């Protein structure tokens, strides 16, 4: 790979990347090295996507997101090096460690996640792949990874754009924003189900199977676009706080 990095183990193998835990022999720190899958290295589009993931990581500066250290390529393989977050992803915690989250804990996870989404959206970055394997938990602190599908909307001055392209631009942004909100709803629902082992053979809709505070139901319905979709993180935050308060009063 690179003489500077000693591979300790493979920690992930996703759709287009292989993720290694490595020792950086220069700093003696553990790092994560992501490699574009060899079979795809000749596909220009994949290379472009990998490069845009790198460019995006470069614009991030948040302690709950990976820090980009360097990029390199050898023999036509592309790599980038980022900080190692020594936590477990939510998927492994739920499926292998059987971790459960009650209503309050699930809402608190959403609260942390919303802060990270707010940071990204403020920078016009839309993650577009908010899922439990992309969320790491380390000592109850949440970290967000995998910006492979993320998009940064470059906002041109309105005078530089025709009104048509300005409108398209705004529509794309709205769509990407809504996608991230929707994914937050799915994550919340996922967490809530961890304490409700389905006893019913015929699957019931969540509104019947889960007995949740009405504030949580309202929040979920708007995130999942069953009710009027949210238009800002601030709106979500207001309802999330109402749900958290309702839960505190109850318990
Ligand atoms: N910086 C990091 N620190 C610690 N673990 C990481 C880091 N980046 C990735 N991982 C681990 O590697 C796994 C795969 O990483 P990532 O999701 O970035 O790859 P991917 O190829 O895009 O995968 P997928 O197609 O499944 O989304 C993650 O679920 C996580 O467990």
Automatic annotation (TrEMBL):
PROSITE patterns recorded: PROTEIN_KINASE_ATP, PROTEIN_KINASE_DOM
Query: Known InterPro entries for this protein?
Result: Kinase-like_dom_sf, Prot_kinase_dom, Protein_kinase_ATP_BS
> Keyword annotations for this protein?
ATP-binding, Kinase, Nucleotide-binding, Transferase
GO terms (molecular function) for this protein are: kinase activity
Start and end residues of each Protein kinase domain:
5-251
Signal peptide per UniProt:
none
Chain sites annotated for binding ATP: 34
Q: What's the protein here called?
A: Protein kinase
Has keyword Cytoplasm?
A: no
């Amino acid at each position: 790979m690179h003489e500077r990095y000693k591979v300790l183990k493979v920690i992930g193998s996703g759709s287009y990347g292989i993720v290694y835990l490595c020792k950086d022999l220069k700093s003696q720190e553990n790092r994560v090295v992501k490699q574009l899958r060899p079979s795809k290295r000749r596909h220009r589009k994949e290379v472009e996507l990998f490069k845009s993931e790198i460019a995006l990581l470069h614009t991030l500066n948040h302690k709950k997101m990976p820090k980009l250290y360097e990029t390199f390529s050898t023999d036509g393989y592309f790599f980038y090096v980022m900080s190692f977050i020594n936590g477990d992803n939510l998927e492994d915690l739920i499926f292998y460690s059987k971790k459960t989250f009650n209503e309050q804990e699930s809402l608190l996870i959403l609260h942390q996640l919303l802060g990270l989404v707010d940071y990204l959206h403020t920078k016009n970055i839309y993650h577009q792949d908010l899922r439990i394997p992309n969320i790491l938990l380390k000592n109850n602190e949440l970290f967000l990874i995998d910006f492979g599908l993320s998009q940064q909307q470059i906002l041109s001055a309105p005078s530089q754009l025709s009104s048509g392209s300005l409108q398209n631009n705004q529509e794309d942004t709205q769509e990407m924003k809504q996608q991230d909100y929707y994914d937050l709803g799915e994550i919340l629902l996922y967490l809530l189900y961890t304490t409700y082992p389905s006893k019913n053979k015929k699957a019931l809709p969540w509104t019947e199977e889960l007995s949740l505070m009405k504030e949580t139901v309202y929040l979920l319905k708007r995130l999942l676009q069953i009710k009027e979709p949210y238009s800002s993180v601030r709106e979500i935050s207001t309802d999330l706080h109402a749900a958290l308060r309702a839960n505190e009063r109850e318990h």
